[in-house]
Amino acid sequence: MIKSTSNIATPCAKHQLTEYEQPLNERMRTFLRLEFLYQQMLYYSELETNWATRSATSSLLEIMSILMRGDVCSKVHKELNYQIQNLKTFVSLPGVDSKRLDGLLERLLENLNKVNAIGTRFMQPLKDCEFLSSIKQRSSIPGGACEFDLPEYNHWLRQPFARRQQDLQGWLNIIRPVCDTIIELLWLIRESAQPVEKTAINGMYQHNIQKRKKRRLLRVILPMNSQLYPEISASQHRFTIRFLEWSNIGHRAIQTEHNVQFQVSTC
Q1: DSSP-derived secondary structure for 174-237
Q2: What is the structure's pLDDT at 14?
Q3: The CATH number of 14-24+194-266 is which of 3.40.190.10, 1.10.555.10, 3.40.50.1980, 2.60.440.10?
Q4: Largest CA distance in the chain
C-alpha cells in the first residue's frame, strides 16, 4: 500500500482540486442522479458514433424512470419556492449586490414558469413512444439491445447523425425544463456555502450539524493528485468522513493513519 509522504495533505490551488459530494436528503439524491444522467445524455447526444447515440438513449431511459415518478416535479416546485423565498429575505439587507440578486430571482422565476407551463403530464409523449418502450423493455436483459433483439433500434442507429440528433433533441426538449431547473438549483445550493479548512485526525472527521440549519448537500474538497478519497456517512444532523488510501484496484483501500487537511462545505 502506497503511503502519503507527508502527515498533512495540503489543498492546492482551486483548479487543482477535486470535489466529492454527499446528498443529505432524498430530494438531493434525486436531483444529483438526474444531473448526472442529463449531463451524460447531453454529452453523448453531440457525438456522431452510433455507440454514443446508444449511450445517450440509455441515459434518457434512466431519466424517464426517475421523472415518471409523480413526486419529482413536486420536489422541484418546493425547492424553487424555497430558494425564491430565501433570496427575497436578502433584498432589504445592507451590502447586498441588488443587481445580482435580482438576476438570480429572475432566473428562478423563469424556471418556475417553465416548470408550471409543461403541466403534470409532460412525460406522456415519452411514455407513449413505442420505439422507446421497446428499447426499455429489452434493455433490462443483458445484451438485450443488440441487433437481433431490436432490429428497428439498430436500423435507426445506422441513420445519418442529423436524423438521430433530431430525434434526440426532440426527446431532450420534453425533459429540458425540469432538468435545466435542477441544474440551476444545484448550482445555487453549491454556491450557498463557502468551503472551510478542516483536519481529519488519523483520517477521521466527525461533525454535528446545528438543527436550526437546513442543509442539503455536503462537499468535501481534496487536491486533484491526492491518493486519498473520502468515505462519507451523513444525515441532516451529523456526518462522518473517513479518508481512505487508494493505490490500485487490486488492493482494498484502508483508512489513512495520517492527519488530513481538507476543505468542506455544508450547503
Answers
A1: HHHHHHHHHHHHHHHHHHTS--EEEEEBTTEEEEEPPTTS---EEEEEEETT-SEEEEEEE-SS
A2: 54
A3: 2.60.440.10
A4: 67
* Superfamily of 26-191 according to CATH: YacF-like (1.10.3900.10)
The reported pLDDT for the residue numbered 248 is 84
Q: Which of 259, 261, 250 is nearest to 1 (CA)?
A: 250
Residue ranges of the chain that CATH labels 1.10.3900.10: 26-191
- SS3 state of residue 244: strand
- Buried residues in 222-236 as b, exposed as e (16+ CB within 10 A): bbeebbbbbebebee
> What is the sign, positive or negative, of the torsion defined by CA atoms of 38, 13, 192, 221?
positive
Q: Which residues pair with 229 in a beta bridge?
A: 244
For the stretch 148-200, pLDDT in tens is 889 999 999 999 999 999 999 999 999 999 999 999 999 999 998 999 999 99
Question: Residue 213: pLDDT above 80?
Answer: no
Residue 176: other Cβ atoms inside 10 A: 15
Give the span between the Cα atoms of 31 and 43, in whole angstroms. Answer: 18
pTM for the model? 0.88
- Residue 57 pLDDT more than 50? yes
